[in-house]
Write a structure and sequence with these properties.
The chain is an alpha/beta fold and about 300 residues long. It is built from 11 helices and 10 strands. The longest helix has 23 residues. Bound molecules: iron/sulfur cluster (2 copies).
């Protein structure tokens, strides 16, 4: 991502170097905007013009968020056209795949956290193990499409440091090896942008991401998240059990849960108290828990393996 003239004509004429374009994408709550602010500040510390634009989804997880950051000697437009991003940072795997074609085909740098945040509407069936309408592409397949790619479990790195929410800063550290700014400038920007309580962890996350990227740059076999396939396979067939606690003293036998359970697995017993008649059919959807007017039902879901996708 060094600022080279794009054409021989520009070079000969000493024309202004083209702007550098970075896209940051993810879903609400992941810290997309913090990353784009850090990039904007880095551009300013280098004495460049900076333009930034963003689209916010829902504040909660699930809403798509993306940001365009452009910096250079002269920047006129705040948005990046398809095929013109020099780098794409994706804080969520499917969002990375969604925007991958915005990268420059030969030279674009793809940096993505391989963790998946599967939206509720991706579940096409309520039964356990039902296939989800979610991108199936693996890191290896995605990296074949880009000039240079890094697909890492940034969330795991951040979790190892004690704060999964610092995954965005891990990815910023990865990007930093593709840019000209000195490490001290990055650290100063993070120092200025992060609240005091999370400052130390963000600085560590940045360094961890940068160290990972330096190793991966020297050894392409490290650029893939080796645990991806196993996590996805597990997510598609989770080892989860569901149990219902029905408080007989609170149940007034109104029949609401029985009628509205999507799997029809509840019934009223002889005392007009709800009970789980067909436990094997219960998916743990919690509809009964939400609808019971007397708070008589509590759904307990036990995950037998802590892996998440
Ligand atoms: S959680 Fe409740 S509503 Fe959902 S399937 Fe089980 S019994 Fe039915
Ligand atoms: S909705 Fe609640 S009160 Fe009504 S039958 Fe079910 S458990 Fe009992």
């Amino acid at each position: 991502m060094s600022a080279e003239p794009q054409t021989a004509m520009e070079a000969a004429a000493g024309a202004v170097s083209p702007a550098r374009n970075v896209m940051v994408v993810g879903v609400g709550g992941q810290g997309v905007l913090m990353i784009s602010k850090a990039l904007a500040l880095i551009g300013q510390t280098q004495g460049l013009q900076v333009k930034q634009s963003e689209v916010h989804g829902m504040a909660k997880r699930g809403g798509v968020v993306f940001s365009h950051v452009r910096f250079g000697e002269e920047v006129w437009s705040p948005t990046i056209a398809k095929g013109e991003a020099d780098a794409l940072i994706a804080l969520e795997w499917a969002e990375g795949l969604r925007w991958i074609e915005h990268l420059r085909p030969e030279t674009g740098v793809f940096i993505a956290d391989t963790r998946r945040i599967v939206p509720p509407f991706a579940c096409r069936s309520r039964r356990h193990g039902a296939p989800m309408a979610y991108a199936r592409e693996t890191p290896a397949e995605a990296l074949e499409k880009v000039g240079e790619g890094y697909a890492l479990d940034a969330t795991a790195i951040a979790t190892g440091l004690g704060e999964p929410r610092a995954a965005n800063t891990v990815l910023l550290g990865v990007l930093s090896i593709s840019m000209d700014a000195p490490v001290a400038d990055w650290l100063a920007v993070l120092d200025a942008l992060t609240p005091q309580k999370s400052r130390a962890i963000n600085l560590e996350a940045f360094k961890a991401g940068r160290a990972w990227a330096e190793a991966a740059r020297d050894d392409p076999s490290l650029r893939f998240d080796a645990g991806f396939a196993e996590r996805v396979a597990y997510a598609d067939a989770p080892d989860v059990s569901v149990a219902l606690d029905i408080n007989a003293a609170w149940c007034k036998g109104c029949d609401i849960c029985v009628k509205l359970c999507p799997e029809r697995c509840l019934a009223l017993d002889a005392q007009q108290v709800a009970y789980l008649k067909e436990p094997q059919a219960c998916t743990g959807c919690r509809v009964c828990e939400w609808l019971c007017p007397d708070f008589a039902i509590a759904v307990r879901t036990t995950v037998h393996d802590a892996r998440t996708a």
